[in-house]
Amino acid sequence: MSAEEPLFRVVRGVPTADELAALVGAIVARARPASAAKPAAASQWARSARPAGAALVAGPGAWRASGLPR
After folding, report:
1. Name one Pfam family in it (predicted).
2. Structure pTM?
3. Is 61 left (phi over 0), alpha (psi -120 to 50) or beta?
4. Which of 6, 29, 41, 50 gives 20 to 30 Å between its CA and that of 23?
């Protein structure tokens, strides 16, 4: 592939600049390796809503225990 050759081309329709920008963004996001994407750290506000201590376990009585203080 030469430097003059485009990476992609529109073969039908007339996309707007916004539509082309969205397409380029989607292509770049798909081309990035999965290991490069780091999950965002949870904020203090989000962490405050999570139960402290051991994680809740599914099973009999789990629904009731999820609302009880630990």
Report:
1. ACC_epsilon
2. 0.40
3. left
4. 41
User: 67 — phi, psi (to 5°)?
Assistant: -100, -5
Angle at 69 between CA 64 and CA 70, to 5 degrees: 105
Q: How far apart are CA 70 and CA 52, in angstroms?
A: 8
> CB of 62 within 8 A of CB of 56?
yes
What would the pLDDT profile of 24-52 be if each residue is shown by its tens digit? 898 888 887 766 566 777 788 877 776 66
DSSP three-state, residue 37: coil
